[in-house]
Amino acid sequence: MKKLIALCLCLVLSILPAFALKGEVVDPDDLPYIPTEQSPSDWAVEEIKEATGAGLVPALPGDPSYQAAATREQFAALAVTLAEKATGKTLPAAPADTFTDTQSEVVRKAYQAGIVNGMGDGTFAPQQTTNREQIATMLLRAILYIQDQNKTDYIEQFEDLSLYQDAGQVSSWATQAMGILAHNGIFKGVGGNNIAPKQSCTVEQSILLCYRLYQKTQA
What we know:
Elements: H1 2-15, H2 45-53, H3 72-87, H4 105-112, H5 132-150, H6 175-183, H7 203-218
Helix pairs in contact: 2-7, 3-4, 3-5, 3-7, 5-6
């Protein structure tokens, strides 16, 4: 009987890791990484570890893979975590009825802080995926919010897209954000001298962008 009990105990202990909650905070040197059981791309691993260690990677809605295109709600969660870590304050949330298609708290926090906007018809479109120029505009709003809260400037507000051969593809409403973030080293070239404004922004890319911006607040 004792042998049987010991065997059962071993079996229980061996399967417990499989039931770890997705998105829980774990040692960044361990696998699986946050936020999924899948691993980030090789080029992103080190910065993902550092971002995780800094507490910048929350459990993301939908439990996406690292290579999936980030949704508006997922990026809102990352941006809110960035802002709360950088300011040391919990962001207030807009009312629950702010949008007709979501009551997500992170979306309402991001909206109240001016980091995200609605779609103009009362909706937020939380599942809509994002591209690099859209992410840039949200990131710029996030850092401006952080600067206002901390009464400190962390970035130079100088626009510079002159190094990128596809700068003409950047939408007029995103030129300022992409230019400033490129000048400050947050956005980097893709495939050479391209800024790729219309390219989708993946979850791992979004994490890295938020982490690079966070580093600016810690310098």
